[in-house]
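[User]
If only I could read C-alpha coordinates as easily as an amino acid sequence. I have put the entry right below:
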Amino acid sequence: MNNKILLVDDELFQLKLLENLLKSHGYSCKIATSVKQAMKILDNFVPDLIISDYSMPHIDGFVFREQVLQNENVKDVPFIFLTSFNDSELVQKGLDLSALDYIPKNIPPQQLISKIKNITKAVEEQHKKSLSELRKVAEKLNLKNVPKEAPELNHFEIAFHNQTFQNYPGGDFIDFIKVDERYTFVILGDVMGKKWGAWFFSFSFLSYIRSAIRICVFDGNLSLATILNKINQVVYHDDFFDDVFSTLSIVLIDDKEGKLSYSGAGDLPLLKYNAANKSLETFKSQGLLLGFFEDGNYEEQDIEIDKEDELFIVSDGMMDFEIDGKKKSDLNVLKNRLLSYKKQGLSLEEIKNLLFNEHKTQIDDCSFITFKRK
Protein backbone atom coordinates (compact mmCIF):
# COMPACT_ATOMS: atom_id res chain seq x y z
CA MET A 1 0.00 0.00 0.00
CA ASN A 2 1.01 3.61 -0.57
CA ASN A 3 -0.49 4.85 2.73
CA LYS A 4 -2.96 7.28 1.13
CA ILE A 5 -5.93 8.10 3.36
CA LEU A 6 -9.12 10.10 2.76
CA LEU A 7 -10.46 11.77 5.93
CA VAL A 8 -14.08 12.95 6.05
CA ASP A 9 -15.53 14.99 8.94
CA ASP A 10 -17.64 18.15 9.12
CA GLU A 11 -15.62 19.35 12.14
CA LEU A 12 -12.62 21.08 10.53
CA PHE A 13 -10.63 21.34 13.77
CA GLN A 14 -10.98 17.61 14.43
CA LEU A 15 -10.14 16.91 10.79
CA LYS A 16 -6.93 18.95 10.91
CA LEU A 17 -5.81 17.31 14.15
CA LEU A 18 -6.25 13.87 12.63
CA GLU A 19 -4.55 14.90 9.39
CA ASN A 20 -1.50 16.27 11.21
CA LEU A 21 -1.25 13.15 13.37
CA LEU A 22 -1.35 10.81 10.38
CA LYS A 23 1.07 12.91 8.34
CA SER A 24 3.56 12.84 11.23
CA HIS A 25 3.52 9.03 10.92
CA GLY A 26 4.17 8.97 7.19
CA TYR A 27 0.63 8.85 5.80
CA SER A 28 -0.47 10.99 2.87
CA CYS A 29 -3.90 12.50 3.51
CA LYS A 30 -6.69 14.27 1.68
CA ILE A 31 -9.49 15.87 3.70
CA ALA A 32 -13.16 16.62 3.04
CA THR A 33 -15.67 18.43 5.27
CA SER A 34 -18.72 16.97 3.52
CA VAL A 35 -19.82 13.88 1.64
CA LYS A 36 -20.26 15.91 -1.53
CA GLN A 37 -16.67 17.13 -1.34
CA ALA A 38 -15.43 13.61 -0.54
CA MET A 39 -17.16 12.08 -3.57
CA LYS A 40 -15.68 14.78 -5.79
CA ILE A 41 -12.21 13.94 -4.48
CA LEU A 42 -12.82 10.24 -5.18
CA ASP A 43 -13.47 11.03 -8.84
CA ASN A 44 -9.71 11.46 -9.30
CA PHE A 45 -8.21 9.83 -6.22
CA VAL A 46 -8.17 6.23 -5.02
CA PRO A 47 -7.03 6.06 -1.40
CA ASP A 48 -5.77 3.02 0.45
CA LEU A 49 -8.10 3.76 3.35
CA ILE A 50 -11.17 5.94 4.03
CA ILE A 51 -11.88 7.22 7.54
CA SER A 52 -15.22 9.00 7.89
CA ASP A 53 -17.37 10.46 10.65
CA TYR A 54 -20.94 9.18 10.41
CA SER A 55 -22.68 12.07 12.19
CA MET A 56 -22.61 14.86 9.59
CA PRO A 57 -25.26 17.37 8.44
CA HIS A 58 -27.12 17.07 5.09
CA ILE A 59 -25.60 13.70 4.13
CA ASP A 60 -24.35 11.42 6.90
CA GLY A 61 -21.56 8.86 6.89
CA PHE A 62 -23.87 5.92 6.24
CA VAL A 63 -25.13 7.44 2.98
CA PHE A 64 -21.51 8.23 2.10
CA ARG A 65 -20.60 4.59 2.68
CA GLU A 66 -23.46 3.48 0.42
CA GLN A 67 -22.26 5.86 -2.32
CA VAL A 68 -18.72 4.51 -2.01
CA LEU A 69 -19.99 0.94 -2.37
CA GLN A 70 -21.76 1.93 -5.60
CA ASN A 71 -18.58 3.41 -7.08
CA GLU A 72 -16.65 0.74 -9.01
CA ASN A 73 -13.33 2.57 -8.61
CA VAL A 74 -13.36 2.75 -4.81
CA LYS A 75 -15.90 0.20 -3.56
CA ASP A 76 -13.13 -2.15 -2.38
CA VAL A 77 -11.20 0.52 -0.45
CA PRO A 78 -11.14 -0.31 3.30
CA PHE A 79 -13.55 1.93 5.22
CA ILE A 80 -13.52 2.94 8.91
CA PHE A 81 -16.11 4.99 10.77
CA LEU A 82 -15.01 7.71 13.18
CA THR A 83 -17.51 8.54 15.92
CA SER A 84 -18.04 10.34 19.19
CA PHE A 85 -21.01 8.08 20.05
CA ASN A 86 -21.20 4.51 21.27
CA ASP A 87 -24.58 3.28 20.06
CA SER A 88 -24.68 -0.46 19.36
CA GLU A 89 -27.41 -0.06 16.72
CA LEU A 90 -25.35 2.52 14.84
CA VAL A 91 -22.25 0.35 15.11
CA GLN A 92 -24.16 -2.61 13.68
CA LYS A 93 -25.53 -0.46 10.86
CA GLY A 94 -22.01 0.51 9.86
CA LEU A 95 -20.73 -3.04 10.06
CA ASP A 96 -23.67 -4.16 7.89
CA LEU A 97 -22.29 -1.75 5.27
CA SER A 98 -18.98 -3.66 5.32
CA ALA A 99 -17.10 -1.06 7.34
CA LEU A 100 -14.00 -2.67 8.84
CA ASP A 101 -14.13 -0.95 12.20
CA TYR A 102 -15.32 1.94 14.37
CA ILE A 103 -12.83 4.32 15.99
CA PRO A 104 -13.90 6.66 18.82
CA LYS A 105 -12.83 10.28 18.37
CA ASN A 106 -11.36 10.40 21.89
CA ILE A 107 -9.01 7.46 21.29
CA PRO A 108 -5.39 8.16 22.39
CA PRO A 109 -3.20 9.10 19.38
CA GLN A 110 -0.86 6.11 19.64
CA GLN A 111 -3.78 3.68 19.84
CA LEU A 112 -5.29 5.29 16.75
CA ILE A 113 -2.06 4.90 14.79
CA SER A 114 -1.72 1.28 15.95
CA LYS A 115 -5.30 0.52 14.89
CA ILE A 116 -4.75 2.00 11.44
CA LYS A 117 -1.46 0.14 11.03
CA ASN A 118 -3.07 -3.16 12.05
CA ILE A 119 -6.01 -2.66 9.69
CA THR A 120 -3.85 -1.71 6.69
CA LYS A 121 -1.48 -4.60 7.44
CA ALA A 122 -4.35 -7.11 7.62
CA VAL A 123 -5.84 -5.82 4.36
CA GLU A 124 -2.45 -5.97 2.64
CA GLU A 125 -1.82 -9.53 3.83
CA GLN A 126 -5.25 -10.61 2.58
CA HIS A 127 -4.51 -8.88 -0.72
CA LYS A 128 -1.23 -10.81 -1.06
CA LYS A 129 -2.94 -14.10 -0.17
CA SER A 130 -5.72 -13.57 -2.74
CA LEU A 131 -3.21 -12.55 -5.37
CA SER A 132 -1.09 -15.62 -4.69
CA GLU A 133 -4.11 -17.91 -5.05
CA LEU A 134 -5.18 -16.26 -8.30
CA ARG A 135 -1.65 -16.55 -9.69
CA LYS A 136 -1.61 -20.26 -8.89
CA VAL A 137 -4.86 -20.75 -10.81
CA ALA A 138 -3.49 -18.77 -13.77
CA GLU A 139 -0.29 -20.84 -13.78
CA LYS A 140 -2.23 -24.13 -13.67
CA LEU A 141 -4.31 -23.00 -16.65
CA ASN A 142 -1.10 -21.90 -18.39
CA LEU A 143 -2.56 -18.43 -18.96
CA LYS A 144 0.17 -15.99 -19.98
CA ASN A 145 -0.06 -12.74 -21.90
CA VAL A 146 3.68 -12.03 -21.75
CA PRO A 147 6.31 -14.50 -23.06
CA LYS A 148 9.28 -15.66 -21.01
CA GLU A 149 11.88 -14.45 -23.50
CA ALA A 150 12.36 -12.71 -26.84
CA PRO A 151 13.33 -14.65 -29.98
CA GLU A 152 16.94 -14.85 -31.16
CA LEU A 153 17.40 -13.19 -34.56
CA ASN A 154 20.37 -12.80 -36.89
CA HIS A 155 20.36 -9.03 -37.40
CA PHE A 156 18.33 -7.67 -34.49
CA GLU A 157 18.58 -7.82 -30.74
CA ILE A 158 15.18 -7.65 -28.99
CA ALA A 159 14.56 -7.04 -25.30
CA PHE A 160 11.40 -6.33 -23.34
CA HIS A 161 10.13 -5.61 -19.85
CA ASN A 162 6.67 -5.80 -18.29
CA GLN A 163 5.69 -4.63 -14.82
CA THR A 164 2.04 -4.92 -13.84
CA PHE A 165 0.12 -2.48 -11.64
CA GLN A 166 0.36 -3.49 -7.95
CA ASN A 167 1.59 -6.94 -9.08
CA TYR A 168 -1.86 -7.86 -10.42
CA PRO A 169 -1.95 -9.55 -13.83
CA GLY A 170 -2.86 -6.65 -16.10
CA GLY A 171 -4.05 -5.60 -19.53
CA ASP A 172 -0.67 -5.12 -21.23
CA PHE A 173 0.17 -8.02 -23.54
CA ILE A 174 3.30 -8.88 -25.52
CA ASP A 175 3.90 -11.53 -28.14
CA PHE A 176 6.53 -12.57 -30.67
CA ILE A 177 5.26 -14.56 -33.65
CA LYS A 178 8.11 -16.02 -35.66
CA VAL A 179 6.74 -17.03 -39.06
CA ASP A 180 10.01 -18.43 -40.39
CA GLU A 181 13.73 -17.60 -40.32
CA ARG A 182 13.03 -14.36 -42.18
CA TYR A 183 9.86 -12.80 -40.71
CA THR A 184 8.89 -12.15 -37.09
CA PHE A 185 5.91 -10.16 -35.83
CA VAL A 186 6.31 -8.20 -32.60
CA ILE A 187 3.17 -7.29 -30.65
CA LEU A 188 2.53 -4.86 -27.79
CA GLY A 189 -1.07 -4.14 -26.77
CA ASP A 190 -2.91 -2.59 -23.86
CA VAL A 191 -6.51 -3.46 -23.02
CA MET A 192 -8.29 -0.49 -21.48
CA GLY A 193 -8.79 -0.98 -17.75
CA LYS A 194 -6.83 -2.40 -14.84
CA LYS A 195 -6.16 -5.66 -13.08
CA TRP A 196 -8.11 -8.87 -13.74
CA GLY A 197 -10.76 -7.44 -16.05
CA ALA A 198 -8.21 -6.18 -18.56
CA TRP A 199 -6.08 -9.30 -18.08
CA PHE A 200 -9.05 -11.54 -18.91
CA PHE A 201 -9.78 -9.75 -22.21
CA SER A 202 -6.10 -9.64 -23.22
CA PHE A 203 -6.17 -13.35 -24.11
CA SER A 204 -9.10 -12.87 -26.48
CA PHE A 205 -7.33 -10.00 -28.22
CA LEU A 206 -4.15 -12.08 -28.48
CA SER A 207 -6.12 -14.97 -29.96
CA TYR A 208 -7.62 -12.75 -32.68
CA ILE A 209 -4.24 -11.17 -33.42
CA ARG A 210 -2.51 -14.53 -33.81
CA SER A 211 -5.32 -15.87 -36.01
CA ALA A 212 -5.32 -12.80 -38.27
CA ILE A 213 -1.55 -13.02 -38.70
CA ARG A 214 -1.68 -16.73 -39.54
CA ILE A 215 -4.47 -16.22 -42.10
CA CYS A 216 -2.63 -13.36 -43.81
CA VAL A 217 0.67 -15.25 -43.82
CA PHE A 218 -1.10 -18.29 -45.31
CA ASP A 219 -2.48 -16.02 -48.05
CA GLY A 220 1.00 -14.59 -48.67
CA ASN A 221 -0.04 -11.14 -47.45
CA LEU A 222 2.27 -9.58 -44.84
CA SER A 223 0.67 -6.14 -44.90
CA LEU A 224 0.36 -4.84 -41.34
CA ALA A 225 -2.52 -2.56 -42.34
CA THR A 226 -4.42 -5.56 -43.70
CA ILE A 227 -3.77 -7.57 -40.54
CA LEU A 228 -4.98 -4.72 -38.31
CA ASN A 229 -8.10 -4.26 -40.42
CA LYS A 230 -8.94 -7.97 -40.08
CA ILE A 231 -8.46 -7.86 -36.31
CA ASN A 232 -10.51 -4.68 -35.98
CA GLN A 233 -13.39 -6.04 -38.06
CA VAL A 234 -13.69 -9.14 -35.88
CA VAL A 235 -13.44 -7.20 -32.61
CA TYR A 236 -15.90 -4.53 -33.76
CA HIS A 237 -18.58 -7.08 -34.68
CA ASP A 238 -18.07 -9.31 -31.62
CA ASP A 239 -20.61 -8.55 -28.86
CA PHE A 240 -18.17 -10.07 -26.37
CA PHE A 241 -16.07 -6.90 -26.72
CA ASP A 242 -18.85 -4.36 -26.14
CA ASP A 243 -17.17 -1.25 -24.70
CA VAL A 244 -13.83 -3.09 -24.44
CA PHE A 245 -11.04 -1.56 -26.50
CA SER A 246 -7.34 -2.14 -26.92
CA THR A 247 -4.31 -0.36 -28.29
CA LEU A 248 -1.92 -2.30 -30.48
CA SER A 249 1.58 -1.71 -31.81
CA ILE A 250 2.71 -4.25 -34.38
CA VAL A 251 6.17 -4.41 -35.97
CA LEU A 252 7.21 -6.79 -38.74
CA ILE A 253 10.90 -7.70 -38.74
CA ASP A 254 12.49 -8.77 -42.02
CA ASP A 255 15.59 -10.43 -40.60
CA LYS A 256 16.98 -11.22 -44.05
CA GLU A 257 16.90 -7.64 -45.36
CA GLY A 258 17.34 -6.03 -41.94
CA LYS A 259 14.12 -4.00 -42.28
CA LEU A 260 11.31 -3.00 -39.94
CA SER A 261 7.74 -1.99 -40.78
CA TYR A 262 5.19 -0.68 -38.30
CA SER A 263 1.48 -0.07 -37.85
CA GLY A 264 -0.56 0.88 -34.81
CA ALA A 265 -4.04 1.16 -33.34
CA GLY A 266 -4.51 3.95 -30.80
CA ASP A 267 -0.99 3.38 -29.50
CA LEU A 268 1.75 5.73 -28.40
CA PRO A 269 4.34 6.78 -31.00
CA LEU A 270 7.36 4.53 -31.42
CA LEU A 271 10.54 6.24 -30.21
CA LYS A 272 13.84 5.83 -32.05
CA TYR A 273 17.16 6.98 -30.68
CA ASN A 274 19.30 8.17 -33.60
CA ALA A 275 22.88 7.56 -32.52
CA ALA A 276 24.39 9.61 -35.37
CA ASN A 277 22.90 12.94 -34.28
CA LYS A 278 21.97 11.95 -30.69
CA SER A 279 18.29 12.74 -31.14
CA LEU A 280 14.96 11.02 -30.53
CA GLU A 281 12.61 10.49 -33.48
CA THR A 282 8.92 9.58 -33.21
CA PHE A 283 6.84 7.37 -35.51
CA LYS A 284 3.13 7.93 -34.98
CA SER A 285 0.29 5.82 -36.32
CA GLN A 286 -3.10 7.22 -37.31
CA GLY A 287 -5.05 4.04 -36.53
CA LEU A 288 -7.87 4.02 -33.99
CA LEU A 289 -8.30 1.74 -30.97
CA LEU A 290 -9.24 -1.82 -31.90
CA GLY A 291 -13.02 -2.17 -31.97
CA PHE A 292 -13.73 1.57 -31.66
CA PHE A 293 -15.01 2.06 -35.23
CA GLU A 294 -15.61 -0.35 -38.08
CA ASP A 295 -12.99 1.46 -40.17
CA GLY A 296 -9.87 1.92 -38.07
CA ASN A 297 -7.92 3.91 -40.69
CA TYR A 298 -4.86 1.67 -40.44
CA GLU A 299 -1.73 2.20 -42.51
CA GLU A 300 1.89 1.15 -42.23
CA GLN A 301 5.32 2.73 -42.47
CA ASP A 302 8.91 1.55 -42.78
CA ILE A 303 11.46 2.39 -40.11
CA GLU A 304 15.17 2.47 -40.85
CA ILE A 305 17.42 1.53 -37.98
CA ASP A 306 21.21 1.64 -38.15
CA LYS A 307 23.77 0.16 -35.81
CA GLU A 308 23.80 1.89 -32.41
CA ASP A 309 20.24 3.15 -33.02
CA GLU A 310 17.55 1.84 -30.69
CA LEU A 311 13.79 1.61 -31.22
CA PHE A 312 11.34 1.65 -28.28
CA ILE A 313 7.70 0.49 -28.24
CA VAL A 314 6.01 1.60 -25.01
CA SER A 315 2.63 1.23 -23.32
CA ASP A 316 0.88 4.28 -21.87
CA GLY A 317 1.77 3.32 -18.30
CA MET A 318 5.34 4.34 -19.11
CA MET A 319 4.32 7.99 -19.33
CA ASP A 320 1.85 8.01 -16.42
CA PHE A 321 2.72 9.38 -13.02
CA GLU A 322 0.95 10.72 -9.96
CA ILE A 323 1.02 14.21 -8.43
CA ASP A 324 -1.04 14.98 -5.32
CA GLY A 325 -3.08 11.83 -5.83
CA LYS A 326 -4.01 12.71 -9.42
CA LYS A 327 -2.96 10.82 -12.54
CA LYS A 328 -0.85 12.77 -15.03
CA SER A 329 0.34 11.64 -18.45
CA ASP A 330 3.21 13.28 -20.31
CA LEU A 331 5.00 11.57 -23.19
CA ASN A 332 7.56 14.39 -23.33
CA VAL A 333 8.75 13.53 -19.82
CA LEU A 334 9.44 9.95 -20.93
CA LYS A 335 11.11 11.12 -24.16
CA ASN A 336 13.40 13.52 -22.32
CA ARG A 337 14.40 10.84 -19.83
CA LEU A 338 15.15 8.29 -22.55
CA LEU A 339 17.15 10.80 -24.56
CA SER A 340 19.15 11.82 -21.50
CA TYR A 341 19.92 8.20 -20.60
CA LYS A 342 20.98 7.33 -24.15
CA LYS A 343 23.24 10.38 -24.39
CA GLN A 344 24.90 9.24 -21.16
CA GLY A 345 25.66 5.92 -22.84
CA LEU A 346 23.68 3.90 -20.31
CA SER A 347 22.93 0.26 -21.04
CA LEU A 348 19.37 -1.00 -21.47
CA GLU A 349 19.53 -2.66 -18.05
CA GLU A 350 20.59 0.63 -16.45
CA ILE A 351 17.81 2.49 -18.27
CA LYS A 352 15.25 -0.09 -17.13
CA ASN A 353 16.38 0.23 -13.52
CA LEU A 354 16.07 4.02 -13.67
CA LEU A 355 12.62 3.92 -15.30
CA PHE A 356 11.36 1.35 -12.78
CA ASN A 357 13.22 2.41 -9.68
CA GLU A 358 11.65 1.87 -6.28
CA HIS A 359 10.82 5.55 -5.85
CA LYS A 360 8.61 5.73 -8.94
CA THR A 361 4.90 5.68 -8.15
CA GLN A 362 3.42 3.23 -10.66
CA ILE A 363 -0.26 3.81 -11.45
CA ASP A 364 -0.71 1.50 -14.45
CA ASP A 365 0.80 -1.51 -16.18
CA CYS A 366 4.16 -0.57 -17.72
CA SER A 367 5.70 -2.33 -20.73
CA PHE A 368 8.32 -1.67 -23.36
CA ILE A 369 10.06 -3.53 -26.18
CA THR A 370 13.38 -2.45 -27.70
CA PHE A 371 15.12 -3.23 -30.98
CA LYS A 372 18.81 -2.81 -31.84
CA ARG A 373 20.81 -3.77 -34.91
CA LYS A 374 23.52 -6.33 -34.23
In short: The chain has two domains: 4-139, 156-373.
